[in-house]
Backbone:
């Protein structure tokens, strides 16, 4: 089973139909749905036919209960604490499909007192970098990663956000990632550029590094091997890429657990991400 620790929030997705008219009206479609990087990975894994567990905290409120019900409907296993106020992310999707996120994580970052039972049955613990920056969630996640390593559970880290990396300092962020001794590190092209050339297996104790580049080929970096470019799956009429990176992570980690090599796992990850992009883009007209 694939597990992921971190955010389960309400996404308020604002799809712009035109460029923003500052200080005036802008036509848009506004929808609400379940979000959070960790939850998205778990949901995508379940939809791809895998078993997956979400580990985290949501508010003790109607919104939080609705979000966990939605994850259960996807087939997810849950280890959830309920307290405080459920978080909200406002996702601005511009006319080209690019996303800007306004984040209020609320109860997500309050997860404390980890339980070793949360890791039972996992082959992989996936950690968005978001889960490493605010206490007590950061300490909880660090403890889970250490327990996972002791139990032979693969640890995967997604670098999550160039802006969050910049706020922490790229050198400090990379040192934080390296301290957890991950087997896999996933980054998009902007995050990779922000972290710099030390985002490489040679500086991460041999960890497999995959750089996602949207519609362009992903780059697979393995210790002692030349970089390999793996073409993405073409998707027509892309209007929303929300969740594509998390779906890629789910597909990739499930494929590794199935015994595929990193290049074949990246090919499968592209397929899972393409399904997510098609679904998100189709929903624009719903």
Residues:
């Amino acid at each position: 089973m694939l597990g992921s620790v971190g955010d389960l929030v309400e996404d308020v997705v604002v799809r712009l139909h035109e460029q923003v008219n500052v200080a005036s009206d802008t036509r848009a479609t506004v929808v609400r749905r379940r979000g959070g990087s960790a939850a998205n990975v778990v949901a995508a894994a379940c939809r791809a036919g895998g078993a997956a567990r979400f580990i985290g905290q949501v508010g003790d409120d109607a919104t939080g209960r609705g979000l966990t019900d939605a994850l259960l409907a996807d087939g997810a296993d849950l280890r959830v604490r309920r307290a405080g106020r459920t978080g909200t992310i406002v996702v601005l999707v511009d006319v080209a499909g690019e996303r800007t996120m306004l984040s209020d994580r609320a109860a997500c970052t309050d997860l404390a007192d980890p339980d070793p039972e949360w890791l039972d049955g996992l082959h992989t613990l996936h950690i968005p970098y978001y889960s490493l920056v605010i206490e007590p969630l950061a300490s909880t996640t660090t403890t889970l990663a250490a327990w996972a390593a002791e139990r032979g559970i693969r640890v995967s880290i997604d670098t999550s956000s160039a802006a969050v990396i910049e706020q922490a300092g790229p050198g400090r962020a990379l040192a934080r990632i390296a301290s957890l001794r991950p087997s896999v590190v996933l980054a998009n092209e902007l995050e990779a550029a922000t972290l710099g050339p030390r985002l490489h297996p040679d500086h991460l104790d041999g960890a497999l590094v995959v750089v996602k580049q949207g519609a362009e080929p992903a780059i697979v970096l393995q210790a002692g091997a030349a970089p390999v470019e793996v073409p993405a799956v073409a998707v027509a009429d892309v209007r929303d890429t929300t969740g594509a990176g998390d779906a890629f992570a789910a597909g990739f980690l499930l494929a590794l657990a199935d015994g595929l090599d990193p290049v074949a796992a990246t090919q499968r990850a592209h397929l899972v991400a393409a399904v997510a992009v098609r679904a998100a883009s189709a929903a624009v007209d719903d």
